[in-house]
Each structure stands twice: as structure tokens, then as C-alpha cells.
Amino acid sequence: MQLLCDRALFSNAFAVAAAAVPSRTPKDVLRNVFLTVGNQGVELVGTDLETAIRFRVDGVTTNSTGGVLLPTQRVSSIMRELQDAQLEIDVNERMVTLKALSSTFRLSSEDPCEFPPVPEFREADFFRVPAPVFRQMIRRTSFATDSESTRYALGGLLLEFHEGVVTLAATDSRRLAVATAACETHGSPATPAKATVVPTKAMSLLERSIDPSAEFVDVAVRENDVLMRSGPCTVYSRLVEGRFPRYRDVIPRNGSVNVPLPVAPFLSAVRQSQIVTDEESRGVEFQFSSSLLTLSSKASDIGESKIELPIEFDHEDIRITFDPRFVSEFLRVLTPETLVDLQLTDADTAAVFRVEDSYTYVVMPLSKDR
């Protein structure tokens, strides 16, 4: 089997597929990216058995068919170093040769028949979401999951489709991020009978793989797995077992005070307040008073800080303590010019951050006697 590739396009595609390859695995075959040439063209496939990526490679000329396993670490290193415009790949039995203008690499290769099968996107009925919107939704929610939780459903994102609206929700039980957007249907996709919780890794792989020029993400939800396709990339994932919390029940319906906060200065103040915190005193007190927000932090072995930020506030003073990391992680996924509406009730009630009607972020305050 012989292929002539555009080196830059092949390198980018290989990096996408390699993102699904596990760093540690008892199955040596999974340490490879599978290159396959068939009716669908040239594809690169990476998987850890739970999640997988198929990426169609453009800029390849070949008259061959078949497949070969490319050792991920070695080929990734080669791709980083090569600068030539063209790359030639020759496969002869268990050897794969990569040739550039002045470089030749011959690598041993494992039996491609040992590579596990990865489903293709062949569904006729699926949901369709604008790609830039879905990418933004993933960025705005995935950081709020808890990959280390023994409650496995907290290690994924809840994916819901209902009456032309797609919702992504994520929580680690101390905070909650919910993003919504309009979606379309292609064919007649059935609404899943049970909650669809997609692993954070799969969603992050999709978010990183969506091309800026892509128009849509097609989503096909099946009983135990999901397929998500955007342009040349398809992400497959098994669904997370376990019950996702009734997230709508924890969003306070009405607060006593609404505070508009521009992201750029608010994020700067929160990041400054994090400097004088440690694991024992990680909380920062947010004091809302007449036209001023004061962030105060204190750590016994470090010192203390006080940051002031002018705001629009004309109510009775409110003092509430947050883990500043939870606030800064939310603000970092927004553009600097975004205006956030903060809904407050009292020092013991969850605060709600809203961005228009499509993004809601809920944070539980820290107790005063922490």
C-alpha cells in the first residue's frame, strides 16, 4: 500500500485522531492510530475502547486499499519535526515507511486485524446543531464536571433534545453549568428514553476537533452510545451509566438582587483575590455594598488581600463567600466584553450567573465556618 500525502493536512489529521489514544493501556494495539483506505477515502482512527475518533484525511493520492497501524508516539514525533510539503507512506507487510524530501523512517507495525472496530456514522435520523454554537456550549459546560467522582454520571455532560432545543448540563454537585441552543432534526430521530450522559473526554475531543469553518454537528443518540459528526470528524462514545441529578430543581427561580457585571474587570478582580488563598482558606468573601464590590481573602501563612471593583449596586449589603476557582473558571469561557447578570439572595443561597437566556451557571457558597 502506498500513499502520497499533503504533509500539513496529514499531520493535523493525525493529531486529531491521536487525541483519542490512551496514554496508558494494557492493550498495546490501542497505542496506535489506525490508517484505513477504503470506500470512504483515507481515514485515521484512534480509540481507548470507550471513546473514538474517525478523521477523514484530505490531500491524499493513492490507488491502494487496506489498513496499517501507526505507532502514535513515534509518528507524532516525526510529524512535529518534518517541514516538507509532501509525505509518502509505504506499507510492506509489518513495516511502514514514511518518506519526506530528505528523511526516511522505517517503523515496525502491529497487525491491523487486532485493532478494535469503531462504528461509522451511518444513521439516517439525527439531530443537527450549528457547529460554532455546539462548540461554545461544550466549552461553557465541560469544566463543571467531576472526573474523579464515584458518582459516574457527574463525570459526563447531560445531553437533551426537546422540541427544537438542545441542552448541555454539567455539575460536580457544588456548581452547575447549563447551556441551551436551537437545533434541527434530520429524518425522524427518537427522543432518548433515558438520560443521555456523554463522557467529558468525548465532548472535549469533539470541541477540539470541530473545524472553524464547519457548519453543523450531527448527533445520533443510540441506546448505549452516541455518534457525533462534524465535517471530516466523527466522535463515537459509550454513554455514562448512572443517574444524572435533577439539575433544574437546584436553580433558584428568583433572587432578591440582580447585579450586572462586565467579564473583563470582574475576572481580573477574582484572579487577584485567588493569589492570597491556600487549600485551607480557599474561600474569598464577596461583599456587595453601595456601588462597590469588595473581594477579601486571608491565609494564615501567606497574608491577606482586598480588591475593590466599582459596580452597579444600590441595595442592602450582601456578604457571600465563594471558591474563587469556581467563579474564574466560569468567567474564562466568556469573551471579555460579555455582560453577566448575577442573581443573589443571601449568604447561604446559591448564586446564579446568567448570560442572556442561553447560559446559566449556579455556584453554591462556602459556609462561614469552613
Map the helices and strands.
Layout: E1 2-6, H1 7-18, E2 32-38, E3 41-47, E4 51-56, E5 60-61, E6 66-71, H2 72-81, E7 86-92, E8 95-99, E9 104-108, E10 126-130, H3 131-141, E11 156-162, E12 165-171, E13 175-182, E14 184-186, E15 196-199, H4 200-209, E16 216-221, E17 225-230, E18 233-238, E19 257-262, H5 263-274, E20 284-289, E21 292-299, E22 303-310, E23 318-322, H6 324-332, E24 339-344, E25 351-355, E26 359-363
Attribute tags:
single chain; 370 residues; alpha+beta; DNA Polymerase III, Chain A, domain 2; 3 domains; nine-stranded antiparallel beta sheet; eight-stranded antiparallel beta sheet; 6 helices; 26 strands; 17% helix
